[in-house]
């Protein structure tokens, strides 16, 4: 069996389409699980492994390198990974593929690339264009029909001629079909074209120069049929790496001859011409179409100004996310920051070269989101680079927040010594700047380190002192975010020292505040603490209620770490309620997510006895053999189905 299959061929020949068909057939046949990584999102190779880890659903919270995380997670799994569009990061892709195949014996990799890897055991499939008189003509007529254009019977010979001229390239055919709204087939055939001469001796396994020119010609046709404003929008949109919507297009591309209304109208025109791919209310430029637009952007002399506008837009986006973090907009911002990941990385890369202070601010504002949602390694890299690139001239407030965010990445990865060192730096900067919000951030960082190492009393003293100081301070900057986070962490410390009544009262008060504000992240941890308290007091039904509420909030924001922790709490709550089967199912579902996080089961150290007691109780309730059977089945079940069950739905097993 071939473990590395490379679909190669010229741009626009349909490599990605064929790869998707392979995956669909594999799924229909009940074959291997599959993961799809869109490598075209990458501006360079640095984030390659992190992107593939994300495609695998990994949300790593350890200090390991992403490639090591992927290898360990795959292990002996029977898995298919698709790496789509490898050519612009080919050397790094070659190294990653070799490492994965060496370490994961049951892994199959399906890659699409304009160039092959030249690795031992690589099975190369040259994707040829469609036969012109049959499949190509059928695709063209299908796309033309979708555009509302139906060629007349007398034009069918011209359809074959056009397909032959376009060499049966699927992307070229789709662009030509989009052009039919504004031009007849005959007019397309008589438009100026590139020199299509090709030597017959050209090796079939090499990219065919003629086909490159064919695609350029089809793109050129579309470009010529665009209005001047559509052409300008096409060029400007090429700066975006990921998906975009109408407001983003208007914010980025309006200016000069393009008003915001012009952008909306021109975008509709580009969709009509198949230049822009529409996916609901979101849009995308395919990589080949983006490359063509980028050439025009360079010729227009706007590449640098658009890169600046792009970076500024995403910095503004991050500021908006930060300013509304504790509001009802929080869950939407989590999704927005996650979806914008490739563009945020591109913006950071640009700012690190041109505006270091802004790079530091953007890395800080995104760092917390990334750390919570499984991109801790990425956050750590950018924060460290931005801090190193800066100097003492940076605003002390921004630098202190950046050090705090960097310390958080280290603590959540288990690097307590580094986290402690950065907490002390935070504290020193906050004291010198007389910044109460900064003092609270430093206290949060230090207290988290103490709690994770079992020092609840020390954490509580530190938090109480910081909260008192903040209440007494007359600070120009509201300390709302930082204060609420410290109050949340104080619940853990109170529970850790056994002051359960105080912890419960404080948790309920903070939870009410979060509900009123529409906030979910802090709210989920108030439910976590209320569940822990209920378990300690052996109130099984109350523990179930709080565990489900925690899971609901964590699912709202897509926090894999928190969902895994919530499933553990749900398992313990089911045990306390006398339901051993459900306890085993919840624990098994949690195990799968803990593997994605890269940690053994975590939380405050004093929670581990609750987990162990819950498991032992569940084993006694249903028997050790049955418990293991249920646990194993849940660990291998569809995670989405298990989460639906955990929320109160029917058990899928």
TrEMBL record:
Recorded superkingdom: Bacteria
Species name: Streptomyces polyasparticus
Protein name: Regulator
SUPFAM superfamilies, A to Z: P-loop containing nucleoside triphosphate hydrolases, TPR-like
N-terminal signal peptide: none
